[in-house]
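Translate sequence into structure tokens.
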Amino acid sequence: MLALFDSLRLWLDGIAHLGTILAVAYLLYLLALTGWIMLQKREPVATLSWILSLALLPYLGLFIYYLLGPQKVKRQRLRRGRARSGMEHYSDVCPPDAGCTELAKVAQATTGLAPSSATEVTWLVDGAATYAALIEAIAGARDHVHLEYYIFNPDHAGTALRDALVERARAGVQVRLLLDAVGSSALPARFLQPLLEAGGEAVWFHPRQLLKPFKRPWLNLRTHRKLVIIDGQLAFTGGINITDEEDESRNPNAYRDLHMRIRGHVVRSLQLVFAEDWLYASGQEPSRFDIARLWPADMPLRGDGNIDAQVLVSGPDSGWETIHRLHVAAIQEANERVWLVTPYFVPGEAARMALTSAALGGLDVRLLVPKMSDSWFVTQAARSYFDELLHAGVKIYEYGPRMLHTKAFIADDDVCIVGSANFDHRSFRLNFELSMMISDQDRVAELATLLQAEFDSAARVHDEAGRSLWLHCLPEAFARLASPLL
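Result follows.
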């Protein structure tokens, strides 16, 4: 019996020691994780959200943060490569006599891309019109076609575009295709084989590398850009990916979306954005690019275009959050109206303050979001902000039944921003995004006409005092609590 008690006491002592060891290990884990997250120097709310969330997942939280936590991408070597190759001449500065606005100067200071001009800006609504215009333009390519996409699916839309690229590659046109490894994960390698056999090139952006030791997988940092450049003369960009989910001629429930076709001097800046993304993703040297082919001598000059246009880029390789910053600055400068259309609305404090201040000041402030986006969680997070916006006087509309995927912004009658960036933390901080800032009354008026039709067909949101606690209020509050992590 005494031996039994001794064994029991030793076992309990072992349990106590094990508990102490685990407690110390957990404390060290928390200290290491907290220090790592704090060194990211993000907003305090986001930092605390990560710490509290991952503290509830001992040890597993460290792995989650390693995969999905905020990460910085260093691309200084691209800037050095740009200088070595002569590409620095294509990111010039605003001339003193150009009368650049404060918005344009901020954009230049944070991106290195100067204010420019366009000779054509044509709005393309939905996928059918966009794909038709793309394939027609590609068929006319004589020197090169550069493409960068988040989603490129092997369906009807993807096959039609691939076949158009294969035809041009066989004709001797240089084809470069840059695809996001997560967004285009449904694309099998064999789908691109005809393009490669025809002489085209394809590169994956941030390929998944979970099995490579000491290599962070970059799962959370994607290129969300949609960009096509043809012969250095013509460009397409906006919010439309290559997928039947955005082709209303084949799918009646296709996303509602907006794209644009651009000609003019500003294509030089778009070409530079693609070149840097390609060099970064491929690891190739800048000398692989023939500068004379990227920027042909007959490209339009700045003075040839009467439409003020500027490229806005943002991503984890810059701490300036240019697209976010320009939205907030434009809201603050507006005197008459602010119209915002976005599929995902998760604003930070600065943007929320700017929107409510504009509405309280008597401006026509409107927000158009999908009635139900393709993410239930993000929809709940967006609705958690409605009460504050409505009380300030913001007019909120919900579009449906189709999923709204348009990303558009208008300030007064002369400034608009259209591109790939959603109005949320992911687009402003994590993804590589591309938007165009257009300062031209005629183009803004055309866009306003398009958006007015969307507002007219959407349901207006009003104060709903009797909403269910369990079905509405609590899910929205929980989603909002996690919004800094979205």
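Note: The chain is about 45% helix and 20% strand.
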